[in-house]
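Step 1: inspect the first sequence and its tokens.
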Amino acid sequence: MTGDDAETGTEADPASDVSEPAGDGAGDGAEVSDVLPRPDDPLAEAVEAALTGRSAVVAVGVPIRLLPSVLAARERSSGPPWRVACRPGVVDALSRALVLGSAVAEAVETDEIRVRTGDPLGHGTGGTLFASPDRTDAVVGPGGDRTLATTTARAGSAALEADAAAVDGARATAESRFDAATPETVEMPSRSRLLDESRAVLDDRFADDLEALLASLDPGEFGRTTEITDRTLLVALAARHDHLFRDLRTWVGTDGVGIAPAQEFTGDRQALVDRGLIESIKVPMGPGRPMLRLRAVHDALLRARPEEVPDVLEGRFALPTDADGRVRDDARRGERRPVWKRRRW
């Protein structure tokens, strides 16, 4: 395959590439949770396998769908920073994706990758291409049936030397596309910053829970387009350790790490209260403007390991509710454990 073949083969129809469920999840308005997780994705697995162990990778036209594969491969590789030009909308979507966004931000912060935004498909930019000094991998095929076309540079016969020239040409094209792309900042904070500042503002118990939870979640789980959001998870974690709602919002808000505006967490707090998972206790009880202390009151939420908290929330949110959003009495499973009888750790 020649360098020109690789570029031509990766051209895709922009509309079908974005709108088809089986497409690449290109960006342009797509949220990470709209595209991921994809439990069975041969293309993503092929990309991760193809990139693992390589050095000086230049990746261009990268959609949301393949970004976790690039990160996973980079973690098992060495050498200089990988240069990654994403499709339009991808970096913006990372600002609303706690799991994937914080992982990408961590890789950028540690200079493992450098992220930019390239031009939209259909503007003569070609498709998704991964290039290193001795090999290129181009994503080819129609939407819903993508595969990798690989060209390896090996000297010897005239045919193999032609492959080497094709690799050089494709890599030069990838580098040119990356250089022309726009540098962008990932607005979601890095994992290290999330954990360090949560220890400072909240405590070690919350930070340890958060670290375990993030390590257990797949990219795309609990985004901003699902009923249980990343904000819901954070409020539930804070309630397991009796934190003040004000302190949680100080940590997450725009004046803190900047996961989301502080006022957006009020609805998630109320949803957890309505479903009998937590309660909000006004403190102090006397005169003056009270603050709210978050307290977990459901036995399953109290006893769960951090990585089990999502299952607890999903099970409770799946129960039918009344007109006020509270779990119906006939749907309850067991009794709520009194706060004064719960075990202290």
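Step 2: inspect the second sequence and its tokens, then contrast the two.
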Amino acid sequence: MQRLYASQATVEQMTWHANHQREEGSMCHPSDAEAWRHFDRTHHDFAVDPCNVRLDLCMDGFALHGQYGRTYSCWPVILTPYNLPTGKCMSFEYMFLTMVIPGPSNLKHLIDVYLESLIEELQNLWHMGVLMCDSARDETFTMRTALMLTVNDLPTYVMASGWSSVGVMGCQVCMEDTRAFYLQNGRKMCYFDCHREFLPPDHPYRRNKKAITNDRVERKVAHPRFTGEQRRDWVEEFSLAVEVPLSLSDEYITHATTY
């Protein structure tokens, strides 16, 4: 981040997200989305300074040298600043390899242990910030960062969130309020016709008794989305993820992250 503000080639574009012309009804950059605007309204003290950095986190695992089927896996963790224009924030040179989590096996729930140092650093940048030099204005300022979103596939999402994608409660939206049922012959959970409850109350598909499920009218209204505070309270009740059982160690065991 310091290099982006120190370079004359990028320092002016670090505030592009706040100054570019938006076309109503179209989205060409994450800053055009309603989620971005909601964040600005919620955290006005952060949004008032366009020099603050919005980040995206991406991570995924792969087998080295194409050795599929073997146990060794490698997990790169990449951060991308969304302050830059559309053509740059998705380009290779602005995707920063923050850490590499080595194998030898799939991380599963232990991914939180490896990410602990990165999360701690992101929290410090959010609460306190870091002193930065702006080469365009020839002055220093306190830069803060916010992790706006994450990009990953479903298996990685399951590992990072701790919520399974299989079984009775495999839906991350419905969670405990699911209506999934078990197929006796197929021996699998089925989520068929669980989606109509999200439609508006007057939608014609709710009253359709033939096209989806015979002789069934959908009257249920989907439960409201859980807030971040509610999800945080649930997570705080869980035990910490460690590499060895807590019964074998009196201290919280962490990994040495490879940078």
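Step 3: confirm your contrast with the notes below.
Residues 27 and 34 are 10 Å apart (CA to CA). DSSP finds eight helices and eight strands in the chain.
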